[in-house]
Amino acid sequence: MNLSEPFIRRPVMTAVLTVSAIVFGVLAYFALPVNDLPAVDYPVILVHVGYPGPTQETMANNV
Q1: Structural domain count, the chain
Q2: Could you report how far apart the first and last alpha carbons of the chain are, in Å?
Q3: Does pLDDT of 1 surpass 80?
Q4: Alpha-carbon distance 55 to 1, whole Å?
Q5: Phi then psi for 34, rounded to 5 degrees?
């Protein structure tokens, strides 16, 4: 007796199991919690450069 034999001999049971798996899958899909805008922590890099004298524009262009 192999794994597929009971499913071949009982096609109605196979159809009921398949339909129930699909129905429960659809119900589980709609029961999943979904956020429109989830809270995400983006990586941030902070650069501190000691360069006395230049303007902010010079620092922004050169660093």
Answers
A1: 1
A2: 73
A3: no
A4: 83
A5: -130, 130
